[in-house]
């Protein structure tokens, strides 16, 4: 195996967590075959990001300049095509994010390379790679074979757990050349959608609520419970559709993928769309009055009962333990 390129995704001066997730996955993929991991950083004035990347990769390829001040898939694509021609990597890892989905497919076409999006696992095959991805909104996982190199693999966010590393990768300052001429797209501005400031993907403890909450007037019960245990409140789609919680805290294939240390599912039946977004939690506790609810198939601990009866008991027990 030759090297694996990992495209660094950053926004507003900060490296996004998915980058470290991909670097961890790349190291595990490359190590058995004696390959190297190269972090690829495109940006303008991003020198402060280098130390954090050096510890995670064998080499950091840094292309700096005004052309990379803001993300533009055409500029990134031209630069990556040139870099791939020079480095001849076995694979290129890109986040399956809004930026990644803008870049990945067109990059694969430009490289005449195989592409697998929403990857949740990948291994080196005798020829190319075997890549697993979710299908039908997470109802099943299919294995895809990419028989040629380089493979373009778009990695699902929050699927791999970032792990510390103590590498001391060299920084290679690389000239991308003219990546602007002939471009058809131009960055105008970045407009952030107003949010509550809650990022459920970074929470250690998450309490998820579903249709079992029944009605809006019961929301304070779970809100107080979440606050008492230091948890962030999340929801399945029915709760968001009802307008009881904002879209930004929806968990599932049409929401966010989370992997907290503890996930408590209250009144969530466990449709495959929801399970696809939370099955990576370290510990899952489910409360549902239906003993056949699908959520129990992934839960480590389950309570078959009405959440409105269970939560008061849990609150009492927690207070007793705390005192």
Characteristic terms for this protein:
323 residues; alpha/beta; Rossmann fold; 2 domains; 9-stranded mixed sheet; 5-stranded parallel sheet; 27% helix; elongated
Distance between the termini: 57 Å
Rg: 22 Å
Task: Look up the CATH topology of the largest domain.
Answer: Rossmann fold
CATH architecture heading of the largest domain: 3-Layer(aba) Sandwich
Counted up, domains total 2
Series of secondary-structure elements, N-terminal to C-terminal: EEEHEHEHEHEEEEEEHEHEHEEH
Mean pLDDT: 92
- Specify the CATH homologous superfamily of the largest domain: HUPs
Categorize the overall geometry: elongated
Structure overview:
This protein is α/β, with parallel strands linked by helices and 323 residues long. The protein folds into two domains: 4-173, HUPs (Rossmann fold); 200-322, TPP-binding domain (Rossmann fold), CATH 3.40.50.1220. It is 27% helix and 25% strand. The protein has eight helices and 16 strands. The chain is elongated, with a radius of gyration of 22 Å.
């Amino acid at each position: 195996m030759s090297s694996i390129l990992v495209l660094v995704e950053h926004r507003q001066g900060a490296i996004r967590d998915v980058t470290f997730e991909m670097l961890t996955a790349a190291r595990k993929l490359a190590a058995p075959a004696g390959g190297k991991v190269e972090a690829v950083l495109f940006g303008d004035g991003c020198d402060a990001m280098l130390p954090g990347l050096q510890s995670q990769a064998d080499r950091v390829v840094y292309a700096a300049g005004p052309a990379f001040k803001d993300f533009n898939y055409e500029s990134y694509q031209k630069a990556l095509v040139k870099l791939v021609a020079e480095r001849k990597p076995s694979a290129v890892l890109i986040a399956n994010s809004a930026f990644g989905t803008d870049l990945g497919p067109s990059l694969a076409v430009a490289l005449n390379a195989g592409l697998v999006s929403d990857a949740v696992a990948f291994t080196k095959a005798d020829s190319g790679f075997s890549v697993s991805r979710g299908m039908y909104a997470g109802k099943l996982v299919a294995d895809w074979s990419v028989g040629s190199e380089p493979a373009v693999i778009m990695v699902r966010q929050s699927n791999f757990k970032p792990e510390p590393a103590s590498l001391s990768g060299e920084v290679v300052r690389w000239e991308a050349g003219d990546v602007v001429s002939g471009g058809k797209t131009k960055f105008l501005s970045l407009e952030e959608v107003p949010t509550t400031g809650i990022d459920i993907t970074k929470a250690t403890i998450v309490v998820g609520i579903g249709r079992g909450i029944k009605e809006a007037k019961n929301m304070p019960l779970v809100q107080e419970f979440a606050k008492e245990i230091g948890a962030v409140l999340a929801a399945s789609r029915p709760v968001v559709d009802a307008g009881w919680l904002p879209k930004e805290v929806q968990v599932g294939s049409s929401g966010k993928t989370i992997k907290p240390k503890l996930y408590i599912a209250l009144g969530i039946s466990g449709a495959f769309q929801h399970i696809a977004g939370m099955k990576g939690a370290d510990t899952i506790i489910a409360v549902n009055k239906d003993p056949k609810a699908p959520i129990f198939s992934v839960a480590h601990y389950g309570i078959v009962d009405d959440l409105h009866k269970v939560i008061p008991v849990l609150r009492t027990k927690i207070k007793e333990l705390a005192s």
